[in-house]
Design brief:
Layout (H helix, E strand, L loop, with lengths): L10 H13 L2 H10 L23 E5 L2 E4 L4 E4 L14 H11 L12 H12 L3 E5 L2 H16 L3 E5 L12 E4 L2 E4 L14 E4 L4 H9 L3 E6 L15 H11 L4 E4 L33 E4 L10 E5 L1 H13 L15 H13 L3 H24 L5 E5 L2 E5 L7 H7 L2 H12 L3 E2 L6 E3 L6 H17 L1
Parallel strand pairs: 3-15, 5-8, 5-9, 9-10, 10-11
Antiparallel strand pairs: 1-2, 2-3, 4-12, 6-7, 11-12, 13-14, 14-16
The chain binds pyridoxal-5'-phosphate.
Length: 460
């Protein structure tokens, strides 16, 4: 079978699962009804209503890979906050570091005493000499693209079809019928996003040079492995070609590893970590001009970092010397506060380690093999792709680009699967079929997850 089965075969099952979800979660339902009075769509961020459940689950507590809702139902968490909790919930090293800092000042607009040491740790870990901190990966990407436009004097950003780099307007674009257009669904963009961007397909060697040669591209921003449209692996040589061409046309290359930090202590492009099926020896060790990481970088606290080369730094310093005084358009009051620095220091020392990633990788490899077996014995041609701890399966063969990935998606079937898993104590991301394996994840939980995915396929 190439794709997911048609809705007619599983819509009755969804109704039963919805009923079961509702019956067992009276407290979540009461809280959801109450919250509707004062929160848009009943939730503090409107997309939290997009889980495909009859009403949102109310979170109570989590530790490691266990998460409990307000009805006391326990879940094994394979979603892990879509990477923020990559190393498990409330890692003891982070909890201890922020507890110590909590009584000593939370925010002050001054550089924390740990700044020098953390700068050294970032530089030696990732090999880029200069760094800045923001609160989120979105803000880091927004800042990097502002810098790139300012340094090059060019207006456009080149992105790949199916990309997501946070809510950065100029990356909220799609390729439709060969043209760059604003992404469907974006609310109230301040300008025509498509005017500030160009979109081409990932792995399209032929489209790269013409897009860069025009001379209007300020930066290329990409994940080394696309992870936000299912997963699209880099074709052998593609990232090396991207690096070579961006150098030739003097276009800064921005590598966003907010998700692919799942592959090792130094991520995918700068390290030689546990790349799983996404391994491309030629791509690992890539030398980007900017490198971005958020979410798990400080163990799940709101923090992101971006690093850059000495050459970029000297161009930035020149620009800062010569610009008019006034607000730069970058930076927020609460970023880089002492609480976050306590977490960042602890995360670099205790979470982003070879030992943690070895544990992560062992579990992810086992999950990958187990899923393949589930599909193989059922004669399904579904693919499994993996970059370290991050794993996706999809319907049909592995996509080569964002358009192929998008065409193969079956959001309603995926929601039905997620609901089935939730009712059996298993939490996966609300979007496509993504799973993460934290270092303390019990092997038995992987067996249960795979058993239940198999049972769902059999029931549909
Ligand atoms: C690759 C990538 N970059 C940036 C972001 C934005 O992260 P945040 O929402 O924490 O700003 C995301 C979010 O999923 C992401 O996947």
């Amino acid at each position: 079978m190439i794709s997911a089965p048609p809705a007619s075969t599983w819509s009755r099952l969804v109704e039963r699962e919805r009923q079961q979800f509702i019956e067992r979660r009276t407290r979540s339902r009461q809280l959801a009804e109450r919250a509707r009075a004062h929160w848009l769509s009943g939730v503090p961020m409107h997309w939290m209503a997009d889980w495909g459940t009859p009403f949102p689950l109310s979170f109570s507590a989590a530790e490691g890979t266990s998460l409990r809702d307000v009805d006391g139902i326990e879940y094994v968490d394979f979603c892990l906050g879509d990477t923020g909790a990559l190393f498990g919930h409330s890692p003891p090293a982070i909890a201890a570091a922020i507890t110590r800092q909590a009584a000593r000042g939370l925010t002050c607009m001054l550089p924390d005493e740990r700044v020098a040491a953390v700068g050294e740790a970032l530089a030696s870990r990732f090999g880029l000499p200069f760094w800045q901190v923001t609160q989120t990966a979105t803000e880091a990407n927004r800042a990097v693209l502002r810098w790139a436009r300012a340094l090059t004097g060019r207006p456009k950003v080149l992105v790949f079809q199916g990309c997501y780099h946070g809510t950065v307007d100029e990356t909220m674009v799609r390729l439709r019928a060969g043209r760059t257009v604003a992404r469907e669904g974006a609310i109230g963009p301040p300008f025509d996003n498509a005017a500030a961007a160009k979109v081409i397909e990932f792995n399209d060697f032929d489209a790269l040079e013409p897009a860069l040669a025009v001379g209007d591209v300020a930066a290329v921003i990409t994940e080394p492995v696309m992870t936000n449209i299912g997963m699209v692996l880099p074709a052998p040589g593609f990232l090396a070609a991207l690096r070579e061409l961006t150098r030739r046309y003097d276009v800064p290359l921005v590598i966003d590893e907010t998700h692919t930090i799942s592959s090792g202590p130094a991520g995918y492009a700068l390290g030689a970590g546990h790349a799983g099926t996404a391994g491309d020896a030629g791509a690992q060790g890539l030398a980007p001009d900017f490198w971005v990481c958020g979410k798990a970088i400080a163990g799940g606290l709101p923090c992101a970092v971006f690093g850059f080369t000495a050459e970029i730094e000297s161009r930035m310093r020149r620009l800062l010397r010569n610009r008019e005084t006034g607000h730069s358009g970058m930076g927020t009051t609460l970023a880089a506060n002492p609480l976050v620095f306590a977490a960042l220091e602890a995360a670099l020392a205790h979470l982003h380690t070879e030992a943690t990633h070895a544990a992560i990788d062992e579990r992810a490899r086992y999950l990958e093999q187990s899923l393949r077996k589930i599909f193989d014995v059922r004669g399904l041609d579904w693919h499994v792709s993996r970059v370290g701890a991050r794993l996706e399966f999809g319907f049909g063969p592995a996509p080569r680009n964002g358009s192929e990935a998008e065409a193969a998606m079956r959001p309603e079937y995926e929601h039905a699967l997620h609901l089935w898993l939730l009712n059996r104590g298993l939490l996966v991301t609300p979007f496509h079929n993504m799973m993460l394996t934290a270092p303390m994840l019990p092997t038995a939980a992987i067996d249960t997850l795979c058993h239940e995915i198999g049972a769902f396929i059999d029931a549909t």
